[in-house]
TrEMBL record:
Highest taxon above the source species: Eukaryota
Originating species: Cirrhinus molitorella (mud carp)
Protein name in the entry: G-protein coupled receptors family 1 profile domain-containing protein
A GO term, aspect molecular function: G protein-coupled receptor activity
Residue intervals of the G-protein coupled receptors family 1 profile domain: 51-302
Compartment(s) of residence: Cell membrane
Pfam families assigned to the protein according to its UniProt record, in alphabetical order: 7tm_1
Topological relation to the membrane, as annotated: Multi-pass membrane protein
Key words, A-Z: Cell membrane, G-protein coupled receptor, Membrane, Receptor, Transducer, Transmembrane, Transmembrane helix
Lineage: Eukaryota, Metazoa, Chordata, Craniata, Vertebrata
PANTHER family tied to this protein: 2-OXOGLUTARATE RECEPTOR 1, PURINOCEPTOR-RELATED G-PROTEIN COUPLED RECEPTOR
GO CC annotations, alphabetized: plasma membrane
Ranges annotated as spanning the membrane: 39-60, 72-95, 115-137, 149-174, 194-217, 238-259
Gene3D superfamilies: Rhodopsin 7-helix transmembrane proteins
């Protein structure tokens, strides 16, 4: 056997040993996976589908012509919608515990999660930078709001996200266990392969954007604090928008990246006990839908981005109310006239 073949054989043997060891203690991670993930993914899928379809309709029908921030928000809504549409496949998988769609779809569905994750991180980072320029350098605000900047930024975000997670397509695999096919999550694949790549993703695709967001928020807060018009509603909205983006980075993205590194580390170190490994895996599973909850916060971002989105939303709601009222009046009139006709 060649040295490379021997190394692969040893890695497979080590992974098999981990799986055998993991059956010797209470499978808390399996229970969380079966009962927690379908519920959370169903919630995210329903809210993400309805909310982002409505947001896209508002941007397309009510908010033309677009500013650069509107284009970024529109692309963020599209990314969240694609993620929400991919979740029903995962929900079925976690309920049935068997993957039936083949290796390509396994890689594609897992890819959708990471494409949304790192695309959202970059979109939110760009929004922070645009807000920073508009607040700290108000003379440049008109230039940064131009449509071409939004288009260029969105094209760059989609391209960079694809480059960041492209290698992942070759790392996600299927596994046969107990006559069932498993579509492994990225962090559950060969730890020797995904360890350094996971670190690269964490540092360059999460920590670096987080530092940019913190830097932007610090300068925005300083500028608003020293501004004469700091109590104006627009200033308060900018402050809330910055805080919300920072909350998403810390609350949604930070636990996931920490637990992903710990999960891979627990698989690559031979001295980790079965219970400790399963506990780390359980915490990692809990953090995955938490990362997906950024779609909820993104829906709030659309309303904070400007008054026009709120006005467009309420105009659609009120139109539906007026339509329903009109239909009710017509129906009532029809029933009354029908009743009078019957009496005569």
């Amino acid at each position: 056997m060649s040295p490379r073949g021997n190394q692969q054989h040893l890695q497979q043997k080590a992974m098999a040993g981990l799986e055998m060891d993991s059956t010797d203690c209470f499978p808390i991670d399996d229970y969380i996976k079966v009962y927690y993930l379908p519920v959370m993914y169903t919630l995210i899928s329903v809210v993400g589908l309805v909310g982002n379809v409505l947001a896209i309709i508002i941007y397309l029908a009510k908010l033309r012509p677009w500013k650069s921030s509107s284009i970024i928000m529109m692309n963020l809504a599209v990314a969240d919608l694609l993620y929400a549409l991919s979740l029903p496949v995962l929900i079925k998988f976690y309920i049935t515990r068997n993957w039936t769609l083949g290796e390509f779809m396994c890689r594609f569905i897992r890819f959708c999660f990471y494409y949304n994750l790192y695309g959202s991180i970059l979109f939110l980072t760009c929004l922070s930078v645009f807000r920073y320029i508009a607040v700290v350098y108000p003379l440049k605000a008109a230039e940064i709001r131009r449509t071409r900047w939004g288009i260029l930024v969105c094209l760059a975000v989609w391209a960079i996200s694809l480059i960041e997670i492209g290698p992942m397509l070759g790392m996600i695999t299927l596994k046969q266990k107990d006559n069932l096919t498993k579509c492994l999550d990225f962090a559950s694949n060969d730890p020797q392969v995904v360890w350094w790549y996971g670190w690269i993703l964490t540092i360059f695709a999460y920590v670096l954007p987080l530092l940019v967001v913190c830097w932007s928020y610090t300068h925005i807060a300083g500028s608003l604090g020293s501004s004469i018009s700091r109590n104006r509603p627009s200033r308060s909205r900018v402050r809330m928008l910055s805080i919300l983006i920072l909350v998403v980075f810390v609350l949604c993205f930070l636990p996931y990246h920490i637990m992903r590194l710990l999960r891979v580390d627990s698989l690559r170190r031979p001295g980790v006990s079965c219970m400790q490994r399963r506990g780390i895996h359980a915490a990692y599973i809990l953090s995955r839908p938490l990362a997906g909850l950024n779609t909820f916060f993104n829906l709030a971002l659309y309303t904070l981005a400007g008054d026009k989105f709120q006005q467009a939303f309420w105009s659609i709601v009120h139109r539906k109310e007026r339509t329903s009222s009109t239909l009710s009046i017509i129906q009532s009139s029809y029933n009354i006239s029908k009743k009078d006709h019957t009496k005569t």
